[in-house]
Write a structure and sequence with these properties.
mainly beta
């Protein structure tokens, strides 16, 4: 007797933990830079260098990269940038994880503040949320056939979603931006930012096509006039080799702009009018495959007594993979206490933070905020460059039919489009479209046959049973359960009683023993 099994690759979540760490340091202004008069804005980025799992612990090493734009303490308008980093080495306790588990760590800056202590010193403090997810891929075996003609068995149809491909890759982007006519030549880049504004992926045979756009802002000085800035949209595309990929798989792919460097270079005429951007986009790839097949639910033999050994197996089935759009709009007022007014908007950056998710009867309620940072020119000639910040709350229902309290889900929230408009001399209206990319799995459990043991029947007991018996069907009876009870077959019951379907409660049938 041979039990034929099918291997399924299951992605098991061993644990998830959310923690917070605080990073802070006092930094001296380098000798090459002038004294600080006042801070204009700051920006930070987390780089993870190493993640390691040990028994019940996760070690995370990395650095907080920060930069600050400030006005120098001088009679003229001098804008400067200084940057630096704070290294960190944190240990997070997580029960149940082991060596070899795959650890995914996402670090998000919840709050970054840069405070000027004096003209030659400033402090940096960041509150960082750490979301650590421990997973492992295991092979679960499901019995699909029994290679023995003397054994009767029945099957159940099962639908599940297995992980087909899981990998990480990098996409390098090198593009050039030419200054438009009317912009002055570049002397020195003071400040720059780059954000992934849109992305698309397409599954192909053994590869994935990636394309999107990066929004770039550059503030620079010019020997020919006042401060200059430019905004540009940089398209990108690339192909990532993924053996085994096909159009039939279900993608769950996340793209992040991990780093970007922007520098000025001369054009064909030798003038500094070209911006060269080098960027690295991380591509986190998970491809799922939906499968439907029949597994052995029960078995018996007319020759041997069978002992079915089973175990409880957890598996997942995809409920929904969809993108929901959410629109937000709000007016933000400057906190200037003097009579300065907004003259022109330079740029706007935004980050989406999901604060709470709640499973409801028909979906997931999502609440969060869009944090925006707006750089603008004001009417103060001594301090013309200003920055305002604001948080725009949002709430959105993601509809998921059939969701349960124990369903597993992931939500990736990113700003897809942000636009700003002056609605007054001290007020800016922000409109944004947010993308909520959601994947939901139904968490299921069932007993799976792992092995079958054979032993001899008690033939005395079986011989004392009548060869033919009339049986009145009860609630819950099926042809299979009756055939197993009386050591016959479903085909025999069907033929003897001329049945067209299964039995009903109260129905009288004739049972012929086959042993």
């Amino acid at each position: 007797m041979s039990l034929i099994k099918k291997n399924i690759h299951m992605n098991n979540i061993r644990g998830k933990i959310v923690s917070q760490i605080t990073l802070d340091d006092d930094i001296n202004v380098p000798d090459r830079l002038p004294d600080i008069s006042n801070k204009i804005t700051e920006k930070g980025n987390i780089i993870v260098d190493m993640v390691k799992a040990t028994q019940n612990k996760i070690s995370v090493k990395g650095k907080l990269q920060f930069k600050m734009m400030y006005k120098a303490a001088s009679s003229d308008v001098q804008i400067h940038k200084l940057d630096g980093m704070i290294n960190f080495d944190e240990v997070i306790n997580m029960d149940g994880i082991e060596d070899g588990d795959t650890i995914s760590v996402d670090l998000v800056i919840d709050d970054l503040s840069v405070s000027v202590i004096n003209s030659r010193k400033f402090s940096v403090k960041a509150v960082v949320t750490v979301v650590a997810l421990a997973e492992n891929i295991s092979d679960e075996e499901f019995a699909v056939e029994i290679d023995d003609d003397s054994i009767e068995y029945i099957k159940d149809s099962i639908e599940l979603t297995q992980i087909a491909i899981k990998k990480k890759d990098l996409l390098r982007i090198r593009e050039e931006i030419n200054l438009i006519a009317g912009k002055l030549n570049i002397n020195e880049i003071i400040w720059s930012s780059a954000n992934l504004s849109s992305s698309n992926v397409k599954l192909m045979e053994d590869r994935i096509a990636v394309n999107g756009e990066i929004s770039v802002f550059v503030l620079y000085s010019s020997e020919e006039g006042p401060l200059q800035w430019t905004n540009a949209t940089v398209p990108f595309n690339g192909v990532i080799e993924v053996p085994g990929c096909s159009e039939d798989l279900i993608p769950n792919i996340e793209l992040k702009l991990m780093s970007s460097e922007i520098e000025a270079k001369p054009d064909y005429d030798g003038e500094q009018r070209v911006l060269s951007m080098d960027g690295i986009v991380t591509v986190d790839i998970k491809l799922y495959e939906e499968q439907q097949f029949d597994i052995v639910r029960d078995a018996y033999s007319r020759k041997k007594d069978l002992q079915l050994n089973t175990k409880e197996t957890d598996y997942e089935n995809l409920l929904m993979k969809n993108v929901t759009k959410c629109k937000v709009s709000e007016k933000i007022t400057t906190d200037n206490i003097d009579d300065t007014h907004i003259l022109q908007i330079c740029s706007c950056d935004g980050d989406v933070k999901v604060d709470e998710t709640i499973i409801t009867e028909d979906g997931i309620d999502v609440e969060g905020v869009l944090d925006v940072s707006i750089l603008y020119i004001c009417s103060d000639d001594a301090n013309p460059l200003c920055c305002m910040r604001g948080s725009i709350p949002f709430s959105q229902k993601i509809e998921v039919n059939g969701i349960k309290d124990n369903s597993v889900y992931g939500i990736r929230a990113v700003p897809e489009q942000i636009s700003t408009n002056m609605s007054g001399t001290d007020e800016i209206e922000v409109k944004a479209s947010l993308m909520l990319d959601c994947i939901v799995f139904d968490k299921l459990k069932r007993a799976v046959i792992t092995d079958i043991e054979e032993s001899d029947y008690d033939m005395e007991k079986i011989s004392n049973m009548p060869g033919i018996v009339g049986y009145v069907c009860k609630d819950g009876d099926t042809l299979w359960s009756i055939a197993k009870m009386f050591y016959t077959t479903v085909d025999c019951l069907t033929e003897v009683n001329d049945l067209k379907g299964d039995v009903e409660p109260g129905q009288m049938i004739v049972v012929v023993k086959k042993m």
